[in-house]
């Protein structure tokens, strides 16, 4: 891998879950992938519907108060994978941009201490970046 994209801001904001675009997921269409992901924390459709039109930041805040489905820790990575697949297959311009990143390493660099989905101060598991690279590889094939 030659290039590294180490933050999802500026020209690469579209890689962020906070980027506004329609994201169909499990029968509902959300206004960003963060809202789709946060909604999936609940198995209650009435709860999920509340996230449909929310901005990403608002979704994240409300998502902290959702009663978590019992299997959340076991399914959250796969749910994020499904949300990202939907984002990039249902938005052709984003699909093209993701494919155009070629073999660049995608790292969700952040300064809000998210070391699970991203990397902060050089430390983190970068699950979001890894899933984006996985989705990119599937879209190429």
Break the fold down into its secondary structure elements and pairings.
Layout: E1 4-5, E2 20-25, E3 28-32, H1 33-39, H2 45-49, H3 56-63, H4 72-90, H5 92-100, E4 105-106, E5 109-110, E6 119-120, H6 127-140
Helix pairs in contact: 1-3, 4-5, 4-6
- Give the beta-strand count: 6
Question: Biggest sheet, open or closed, and with what strands and sense?
Answer: 2 strands, parallel
How are the strands ordered across the major sheet? 1-4
Give the termini separation. 18 Å
Q: Supply Rg.
A: 14 Å
What structural class do you assign from the helix and strand content? alpha/beta
Count of DSSP helices? 6
Uncertain parts: none
Q: What is the string of helix and strand elements?
A: EEEHHHHHEEEH
Beta-sheet strand percentage? Answer: 5-15%
Overall mean pLDDT: 97
Describe the structure.
Helix 1 packs parallel to helix 3, helix 4 (72-90) packs across helix 5 and helix 4 (72-90) packs across helix 6. It is built from six helices and six strands. Strand 2 (20-25) and strand 3 form a beta hairpin. The model has no long low-confidence stretch (mean pLDDT 97). The longest helix has 19 residues, at 72-90. Helix content is 44%, strand content 13%. The chain has 141 residues and is of the alpha/beta class. A two-stranded parallel ribbon has the order 1-4. A two-stranded antiparallel ribbon has the order 2-3. It has a two-stranded parallel ribbon with strand order 5-6. The protein starts with a strand and ends with a helix.
